[in-house]
Design brief:
This protein is α+β, with helices and mostly antiparallel strands. The chain has two domains: about 60 residues, no CATH class; about 30 residues, no CATH class. The longest helix is centred in the first third of the chain and has 14 residues.
């Protein structure tokens, strides 16, 4: 497994850094060091995530890699709204696949 240090700016919705570490201990130490650098900025999120590959990480934690519009667009592909009563309320149906 691979260990990835991600630094994400919540206020901008933007990933600032992705660094891969082979050893979890190294990734965690990098996380602690990075958190110290950003401790005065609550909008900065520092995490270590483990995945088999960066591609797998991008798939399972897309919110770090995609902008808000892209996430919303992807989400809408999986949700359809079936209106009833001439549009006075509706049923939300989750569509998978």
């Amino acid at each position: 497994m691979r260990h990835f240090l991600l630094v994400f700016d919540r206020s901008k919705g933007r990933l600032l850094t992705v660094i891969e570490h082979k050893r979890r201990a190294d990734a965690l130490q990098a996380r602690f060091d990075t958190e110290k650098l950003h401790r005065q900025d609550p909008s900065i999120e520092v995490v270590v995530l483990t995945a088999g590959s960066e591609q797998a990480l991008r798939r399972t934690h897309a919110r770090y890699f995609e902008d808000v519009q892209q996430l919303a667009s992807d989400g809408l592909r999986h949700v359809t709204v079936a209106e009833s009563d001439g549009g006075a309320g509706g049923e939300v149906r989750i569509v998978t696949g």
